[in-house]
Design brief:
The chain is α/β, with parallel strands linked by helices. The protein has a single domain (about 1-150), classed as 3-Layer(aba) Sandwich (Rossmann fold), CATH 3.40.50.450. Helix content is about 40%, strand content about 20%. The chain has helices spanning about 15-30, 45-55, 75-90, 100-115, 135-145; strands at about 1-10, 35-40, 60-65, 90-95, 120, 150. A 6-stranded parallel beta sheet has the order 4-3-2-1-5-6, sandwiched between helices. Helix 3 (about 75-90) links the parallel strand 3 (about 60-65) and strand 4 (about 90-95). The radius of gyration is 14 Å and the shape is globular. The N and C termini lie far apart (about 35 Å).
């Protein structure tokens, strides 16, 4: 089983979205079969990756950072998309955090990095805005010697 994990920004600017989607499709296609996709199903890159992985026929593993994770979805549509993807996951890994904190997010990201063969990072290359951000997980995965594929469109900045 080939395992590919994701870390990425919650906000993907519209001018980068098509590029990111196609690069994720390519990474998933090149990952080999059978394929397991690891994601925390957060808004943005994580959910996009999960949808594309499922469409490709991968087994989805949902890594849930905390007991109250569902409460961090501010928008009802985002929560519905999260719940729909979670229901399609072949496996769910729940971390032992009661609340959604930066530490819980960092633990979820490092769990994914620890358990994948390759990490895909939808990342603008800038430092993380808080513990557990994309930059932190990329740094962690690289320190492990894990191959990391960075996906971002040159010249595009996040808000």
């Amino acid at each position: 089983m080939h395992r590919i994990g994701v870390t990425g920004h919650r906000s993907i600017p519209p001018q980068a979205h098509a590029h990111v989607r196609e690069a994720l499709r390519t990474a998933l296609r090149e990952a080999g079969d059978p394929l397991e996709a690891l994601s925390s199903l957060a808004v943005g890159a994580d959910q996009l990756f999960a949808r594309l992985a499922l469409a490709r026929g991968a087994r989805l593993t949902a890594v849930i950072p905390s007991d109250d994770y569902e409460e961090c979805f501010d928008d009802e549509g985002d929560l519905k998309r999260y719940l729909a993807l979670k229901s399609l996951a072949g496996r769910e890994v729940r971390l032992d955090f009661r609340h959604s904190t930066d530490e819980a997010y960092y633990a979820a990201g490092t769990w994914i990095a620890d358990h994948c063969d390759r990490l895909v990072a939808v990342w603008d290359g800038l430092p993380a805005r808080g513990l557990g951000g994309t930059g932190d997980i990329v740094t962690y995965a690289r320190a492990l010697g894990r191959p990391v594929t960075v996906i971002w469109r040159d010249g595009v900045r996040r808000d």
